[in-house]
Amino acid sequence: MGINVLYTILCLFSLIIIHELGHVISALILNLKITKVGFQWIPYPHAYVKIKWTKSKIKALIYLLSGSFMTIVLLAISLINNFFGLQALAMAFFIQLIIEFNPFYSDFTIIRAIFSDKSEDQETHAALMKEQLFTPLWYVHFVAWVFLIFQLKKLLI
Amino acid sequence: MFKILAKSTYYQFLIYIRMKQAVFFSLAFPVFLLVIFGKFWGADSPEYIYFLMTGVIGMTIASDGMFAIGPVIKEYYENGLIKYMRKMPFNILWHFMGLILSRIISLFITVIVVCLTAYFVFGVAITGEQILNLIYGVFIGLFVFAFLGLSVSFISISNLSDKGLTNIIYFGVLFTSNAFYPVYEFNKSISSVGDMLPLNPILDIIRHANFHYVLIFWIIVPPILFSFLFKRVKFTR
């Protein structure tokens, strides 16, 4: 059991790095200036890539979705290959996808914020995300997220 | 005196229930975690449901203690409200006690809701002795984590980003604890670290009525540290 947990943690770290790499690659392709790559503890421990924010919503959308796109591509490859025989990898995907799609603080909550037509920079998004908690759209996101968790359980564990 | 305390508790509780975010994370979120984890890993195991239920309660005690008391009092300091309160015709401690009592009430509501969820969703009922252990654990746990949160908040009183430090400690305590899974089964070193931190001994009180001596340290040191830090605070306009 101990080894499995260790492998899961290692796989999870790899998935986090690949997710952030997705943001970095898309930022480079879209000519967005990366200002910081780091780790922070608020509101929960997570890695992040910070860019000089763009006013183009399409670019922002592509940039924000690129991380999850990388995870989903990897998930597809892993599913085809039966997770390369690693149960820990399936578990890591399970955890990573739950975190990536969560309705409290994720790339998707930032997308909700930038499409609320108010925000211009990444700092403003944090405040906007708080404002958007418990709105009808947030409840839709929450229900979809719970549905996703149960589907992932069937698919991965 | 008691009227002041009762009024203060009432208004603090009113403030709490008007904050959707606070109610969600202290009441709905623990229930959500219990249902999700319980459905996934505890369907055939009432033992795990009880383990999870107490773990979720332990996690809520830690988060309520660390985030709902210390940072609130720090905010009083930051926006100058503490200075105003000190001029009130009653001791400021009554006001703080009202805040703590309101958190105890909200925590007991969470405990009741979590226990009812465990019973109605998973059919796991708790005995009278287990209820007493829960009450015992809630009081000690809230005391320890409240002073820990207060100390952390007041260590960095002039630093607006103290939430980061509180989060580091909170997640450190949570991830090394036996709240959701028995850490001791897969890593003895992490488990030993968890045993030295306050959440595991509190979970042990709730689950087995065992009192670990390490808890004495956590009961004594954070209040002393807080009183030292509080005396150092300079009230400025």
Task: Characterize the structure shown.
- The complex is a heterodimer of chains A (157) and B (237).
- By secondary structure, chain A is mostly helical.
- Chain A has one domain.
- Helices cover 67% and strands 8% of the residues of chain A.
- Chain A contains six helices and two strands; from the N terminus they run H-E-E-H-H-H-H-H.
- A two-stranded antiparallel ribbon of chain A has the order 1-2.
- In chain A, a hairpin with a 5-residue loop joins strand 1 and strand 2 (46-51).
- In chain A, helix 1 packs antiparallel against helix 2 (57-80) and helix 2 (57-80) runs antiparallel to helix 3 (87-100).
- The two termini of chain A are 15 Å apart.
- In chain A, 24% of the residues are buried.
- The mean pLDDT of chain A is 88.
- Chain B has 237 residues and is mostly helical.
- Chain B has helices at 2-17, 20-41, 46-67, 70-78, 81-86, 92-122, 128-155, 162-175, 188-196, 199-208, 214-232.
- The longest helix of chain B is centred in the middle third of the chain and has 31 residues, at 92-122.
- The mean pLDDT of chain B is 88.
- The A-B interface holds A 1-2, 4-6, 40-45, 130, 133-134, 146, 149, 153, 157 and B 20-21, 24, 36, 40, 163-164, 167-168, 171, 185-187.
What value does the average pLDDT of chain B take?
A: 88
Question: Unreliable runs of chain B, pLDDT <50, ≥5 residues?
Answer: none
Kindly report how far apart the N and C termini of chain A lie.
15 Å
Low-confidence stretches of chain A: none
Count of separate structural domains of chain B: 1
Basic shape of chain B? globular
Q: First CA to last CA of chain B: what distance?
A: 29 Å
Output the structural class of chain A. mainly alpha
Q: Count all strands of chain B and give the number.
A: 0
Reported for the largest beta sheet of chain A, the result is:
2 strands, antiparallel
Instruction: Identify the biggest protein-protein contact and residues per side.
Output: A-B, 18 and 13 residues
Task: Tell me the structural class of chain B.
Answer: mainly alpha
How would you sum up the major sheet of chain B? none
User: Can you write the helix and strand succession of chain A as a string?
Assistant: HEEHHHHH
| Rg of chain B, Cα atoms, Å | 18 Å
Q: How many H/I helices of chain B?
A: 11
Average per-residue pLDDT of chain A, rounded, comes to 88
